[in-house]
Amino acid sequence: MNAKSENWFGHDVKPGEAISTELVISESYSSRDVAIPIRVRRGLNPGPTVFVTAALHGDELNGTGAIRSMLGDPSWELASGTLLMVPVLNVLGFERHSRYLPDRRDLNRCFPGNTTGSMASRLAKVMFDSIVRRCDFGIDLHTAAVRRTNFPNARADLDNPTCLKLAEAFGSGIILHGKGPKGSFRREATAAGCPTIVVEGGEVWKVESSVADCMLRGVFNILKTLKMMDGPPDIPEHQAIIKQTKWIRAERGGFMSMHVAPGDSVVKGQALASNSNLLTEDQNRLEAPFSGIVIGMTTLPAVQPGEPVVHIGRLANPKSALRHDQHVASDDVQRTALQHLATNVQVTEPEELPSS
User: Fold this and answer.
1) CATH code for the structural domain at 6-225
2) Boundaries of each Succinylglutamate desuccinylase/Aspartoacylase catalytic domain copy (predicted)?
3) Strand 254-258 vs strand 80-86: parallel, antiparallel, or unpaired?
4) For the domain bounded by 244-342, which CATH number is listed?
5) 215 with 152: CB under 8 angstroms?
6) In this structure, are residues 234 and 171 in contact, taking their beta carbons and an 8 Å threshold?
7) Residue ranges, CATH 3.40.630.10, the chain
8) Tens digits of per-residue pLDDT, 1-15?
9) pLDDT tens digits, residue range 325-345?
10) Could you tell me where the beta strands, DSSP code E, fall in the chain?
């Protein structure tokens, strides 16, 4: 039986139709509407309702690039269900090139929100009620924070079987376990009955083609797994499950020489970065405390003691650990991302340290 017409944001959307609309979330100082643009696309047949959002942090734009690629590509079709595509969720942060809202609050700590709280809480309430509570599944696209980069990875509450299914179907190659912080979009959406995953990849303030391609393929993979698109999903042969991560922090101030790149596999004791003064003297070295995968790292070579340098994830199954010369990238899309992200930092071979 064919799907019926649905009302989205004041518009009746028939099966097979797509509309561009807006969701009014607040008012400006001049009392004008503040709205987020949304594309609603429906398949001909009944099916799940899925949202894909980006720029919940207003400076994280790789997901925006991925969604815009979907919007501009006429070659794909939605066979069933309803898809909500939101290129920029945090429009107020986006317009200021900022992670945060104008009041410095992090929107991603304010869900599900309330109608009488702060501006951030009120925005969160409108978004949550209008989008999340009407959807069956969610995909939220992010990047690393400022001065950092991430190899594309999916993050989900793996104790939730549906979240695990979505994370595996996305096919990023790296899956991190976690519910997410209290008040975060994915945690509260999942708790409200809309299983949601987060995907992290790349840096802020830019659209990196290889990262956006990974995100685009992942969204299509999930839609195919949910039978909303025709065809088999394109999922890598191997994916790493990570349940423990650790930031390796600088021990001294100085200039870092990096010896690994995002996506690299490392073994316990392997050199990650070397630290020296500006005359390359007083060198010390940061080493991997366990075998695992480089999830992310700083892109700022100058550090002070305690600043994060390399983010490592420990594989959930130690027997599946890769050699130090292997990578998590097992297909062309992942390998392209690995090569691209490796150019964001200068990676050198470690020098021999003088014996004590």
Assistant:
1) 3.40.630.10
2) 46-225
3) unpaired
4) 2.40.50.100
5) yes
6) yes
7) 6-225
8) 567 999 999 999 999
9) 455 666 777 778 877 776 777
10) 6-8, 11-13, 18-27, 33-42, 45-54, 80-86, 137-142, 148-156, 174-177, 196-202, 240-249, 254-258, 265-266, 271-276, 284-287, 292-298, 302-303, 308-315
